Amino acid sequence: MINLVSDTVTKPTPGMLQAMMAAEVGDDVFGEDPTVNALEAKVAALFHKEAALFCPSGTMTNQIAIKVHTQPLDEVICDEYSHVYQYETGGYAYNSGVAINLIKGRHGKITAEQVEAAIKPEADWLPKSRLVVLENTCNKGGGSYYTLDEIRPISKLCWHRGLALHLDGARIFNALVETGETPQAVGEQFDSISICLSKGLGTPVGSVLIGTKAFIRQARRIRKVMGGGMRQAGYLAAAGIYALDHQVDRLKEDNERARTIGAVLEKMPYASEVRPVQTNILIFDVNPPYTAASFLEKLAAKGVKASPFGPQTVRFVTHLDFTEEMMERVIGVLKELE
Ligand SMILES: *Cc1c(COP(=O)(O)O)cnc(C)c1O
Fold this sequence. Notes:
Blueprint: E1 2-3, H1 14-21, H2 34-46, E2 51-55, H3 58-69, E3 74-79, H4 83-86, H5 91-96, E4 99-103, H6 112-118, E5 128-135, H7 148-161, E6 164-169, H8 172-179, H9 183-187, E7 192-196, E8 207-211, H10 213-225, H11 234-246, H12 251-266, E9 271-272, E10 281-286, H13 292-301, E11 304-305, E12 307-310, E13 313-317, H14 324-336
Parallel strand pairs: 1-11, 3-4, 3-5, 5-6, 6-7
Antiparallel strand pairs: 2-8, 7-8, 9-10, 10-13, 12-13
Helix pairs in contact: 1-11, 2-11, 3-10, 6-7, 8-12, 12-14
């Protein structure tokens, strides 16, 4: 079976497993795991920030960021497609007691003008606009990405208006290999950043939250109360260090393979609305009589697994364990379908 359900389905490479087995570990709740400390220092330096925190998931790093940046009765401004709104079980309300103010962006991306229009005036009866969350790349937006030129006006606005700016950078490296921009330059635009190690980077577990020392000090307390304090987590952190050293540049291949498949789908009579493929996520609609479910069933019968993204919508995600040869097979299957 060829699995295009998500880039989270990858298994550790032999080199990564070796690095994990060789990790030096300690108790990270006491701050004594040297490998976790090394990963956190490495990621903080990479993004030109003071400190970082290793967490079990990207949901947790996003939820901790919202918690640390806000007070109850505040509001978070983000695109309606945002992971923090769509796929984190409504955690912003549950964990932080905040409201959400959704912007209709373009492929999951919003502009400074839209953010400015969304900021609420101060009044006793209104939630207080406090935090803006951008997602780069945007999952539900079809892997769309922001360039720094698009981000800068938003960070400038947030700075002027006293709002915090968080980046859900679960797939930030998929964007950076396209733009050629540096993590440092991205780091300078945000108060906090969450990156996932277990998506395109291919580790089994883990995300990293990045920010100032004071922000991370509080984030550590929130991680603990959420049950995310881990002990000999260095075995997992070692996979993250390995991924950052060896598995970033190759993300370009994932992006290219998604684009190649997208170009094939453009020509298929059963597919429409193939979203612009910017990185490793490919979203398209299937025409009736197909539904997403019946199309996926047909694909599965031919050995390709993918996920529904709406009644008529299908998502493919390319990744580390999806080879060139698998891509050729998928293209063959897509051409056989009518
Ligand atoms: C996957 C993902 C996350 C975090 O997901 P976890 O499964 O909790 O690690 C956050 N944001 C985006 C955009 C994602 O795709």
